[in-house]
Amino acid sequence: MVDYGIKFWSNGDFIIDEGVVKVNYMSKPALIDIVREVREKGYMGPLLIRFPHLINNQITKLYNAFESSIMEYQYKGEFKAVFPLKVNQMPNFVLPLVELSRTKCYGLEAGSKAELIVAMSYTDKGSPITVNGFKDKEMISLGFIAANMGHDITLTIEGINELKIIIDIANDMPEPYPNIGLRIRLHSIGKGIWAKSGGITSKFGLTSTELLQAMKMLESSKLLHKFTMIHFHIGSQISDISPLKKAIREVGNIYAELRKMGAINLTSVNIGGGLAVEYAQYESMNCKNYTLEEFSGNVVFSLKEIVKNKNELEPDIFIESGRFISASHAVLITPVLELFSQEYDEGALNLKDDNNPPLVEELNDLYHSITDKNAIEYLHDSLDHMESLLTLFDLGYIDLRDRSNTEVLVHLIIKKVIQLLKYKNHNEIIKIQKSVQERYLLNCSFFQSLPDYWGLEQNFPVMPLDRLDRRPTRAASLWDITCDSDGEISFNPQMPLYLHDIDISREEYFLGFFLVGAYQEVLGMRHNLFTHPTEFSVIFDDDLNKGYEIDYLLEAQTIVDVLDDLDYDTKEIERILKQHIEDSDLDSDTKKVVLGKLYVMLSENGYLRTIAK
Ligand SMILES: *Cc1c(COP(=O)(O)O)cnc(C)c1O
Predict the structure, then answer these.
(1) Name one Pfam family in it (predicted).
(2) Whose CA is nearest to atom 5 of ligand 1?
């Protein structure tokens, strides 16, 4: 793999050209040049780069796909969409999203009071707002206030209790009221690691019995005319389209039934999120078995069929895709700080002139007599010998020098096997490489920047930003700088990662993690007190010198700010540290110097600042 599967996961957003990764847009800058430009300004840790044009790209693709399916099937409903804020609430994502989608009536979805405040502040009047998730009286009142302000807002009810609160509040608040949506508890279920949102045991939604009850309550409180939408969400990252088709059949029938029961203003079916993103770097590991066009075609066609059978109006189709819209816009850049190899050459071997343990002699013989025919057999023998020798060491029978010779010989044998089998037994080689992987230490925290890797074992495409015209030779595992052993992405023979052999003391090497724009930022945690990395946006404009500019730069929080966030009294911390220096035995000039250094560090972020010499 020299192209790191870029054709599978990048959708043409990024390309490899002249040995570097480039943004495939307008002036086509190389990522490495953008990174160098920002590092020259002194920002040394991990960097999160946002590309607003990719947000626009995804929104346009989504609308185009649905609008052409609607044309194709001569569907009479409209297509509408909102962005679910829980997928990315960062202002440098949300504000450009709102700005770029102005002409499309694209709205926002909120799942909490804070998100609803964002939606109420930044959604254009006329663009929809939807509200999901559990709500109390206050949150529902907030929805009424939004409606009073003139927002097109729909409160989706997750349970009968919420409907009771709405009816109560409607008695107290002036019109206009918000629209009401009912979330359906489906019996069909999504597939994949995120599929807990659908299904009869799901956390959310009304059963059929509760739907009937809700209809009665709406009717008797004279609010039935505000009931406009039914909603479902079968879970994120739907890998196959068939569960969605099943869900649509179920919901389409419910829609038609409710209309027949008198819900005449029920005109929208909200199919939630779930549209998947391809994260795989190897075709065999793909996690999405459909195209966007298949997705939209299936939704439109299925709804049309069901509604036709029941002789009902074709509903407007609402979608709340989050991952699909936001994943591609952000790239995490991590500088490689160090390579930890157990790279031994024959020079490291320090055999004794006589009385080497017999098994060490045996290893030495294996090493010298290995050929392509016996390679695998000898390899297995040598691994057995190593086990025995390590046991002998534990029991006190061999010394440290023998143990070191064991390590070196086994390592040399593995290297030789890899060399001998290079063109013969690829699968076997990849398995063997697991034991000689190189560890690349990355200046970032996986807990902060890739929490779904840690929590859900989700893989993100990763590749070096340059040297792509050279064959990478090192089987790589990746370590972050937290002191947690879970902060590791180990070499996986099913999707092996190879990186370049570099001398970090002389040259820089950066890895990019792609498709990190959905869920990772706010979900990220401050394990070891590493914070959100320094971020900035790349704005394209052909009138500019390089065809783009770097804007909205936000530096990672300083150490003092992080401690302040945890409610430490940072003034007290500064006072204590200063006092310790005052009380020390240093002379007064040195005290000043040390204190100065300390203050500088407190005002920087906590990522490592190493640079190549
Ligand atoms: C999370 C969520 C979404 C977004 O799902 P994606 O898979 O990111 O598209 C949409 N709707 C609801 C109700 C959600 O909870």
Answers:
(1) Orn_Arg_deC_N
(2) 273
461 pLDDT more than 80: yes
Mean pLDDT across 223-249: 93
Question: Measured from the CB, is residue 231 less than 6 Å from ligand 1?
Answer: no
- Decide: 382 and 363 in contact? Cβ < 8 Å: yes
Domain boundary assignment for the chain: 14-50+331-341+438-559, 75-324, 350-434, 563-603
What is d(CA 476, CA 436) in angstroms, rounded to the nearest whole number? 9
Question: What kind of fold does domain 350-434 have according to CATH?
Answer: Methane Monooxygenase Hydroxylase; Chain G, domain 1 (1.20.58)
CA of 387 to the centre of ligand 1 (A): 50
Give CATH superfamily name and number for 14-50+331-341+438-559.
Lyase, Ornithine Decarboxylase; Chain A, domain 1 (2.40.37.10)
Phi and psi angles of residue 21, each rounded to the nearest 5 degrees, phi first = -85, 130
SS3 annotation, 536-590 = EEEEECCCCCCCEEEEEEECCCCHHHHHHHCCCCHHHHHHHHHHHHHHCCCCHHH
Atom of ligand 1 nearest to the CA of 274: 7
The verdict on the CB of residue 190 being under 6 Å from ligand 1 is no
Residue 105 is a catalytic residue: no
Is any ligand 1 atom within 6 A of the Cβ of residue 320? yes
Same fold, 14-50+331-341+438-559 and 75-324: no
Mean pLDDT, the chain, whole residue set: 93
Q: What is the CB neighbour count within 10 angstroms for residue 549?
A: 13
> What share of the chain has pLDDT > 90, as a percent?
82
Largest CA distance in the chain: 99
pTM passes above 0.90: yes
Q: What is the pLDDT of residue 205?
A: 87
pLDDT tens for 102-141 read 999 999 999 999 999 999 999 999 999 999 999 999 999 9
CA 383 → CA 347, 357, 397, distances in Å? 21, 16, 19
The contacts of residue 124 (CB under 8 Å, 6+ apart) are: 98, 102, 105
The predicted structure's pLDDT at residue 157: 94
Q: What is the identity of the amino acid at 579?
A: Q
CATH class as words, domain 75-324: alpha beta
Evaluate: CB of 557 within 6 angstroms of ligand 1: no
Model confidence pLDDT, tens digit, residues 345-368: 888 899 999 899 999 999 999 999
Tell me which residue of 548, 449, 452, 554 sits closest to 93, measured CA to CA: 554
Q: Dump pLDDT digits (tens) for 475-524.
A: 999 999 999 888 999 998 889 999 998 888 899 999 999 999 999 998 99
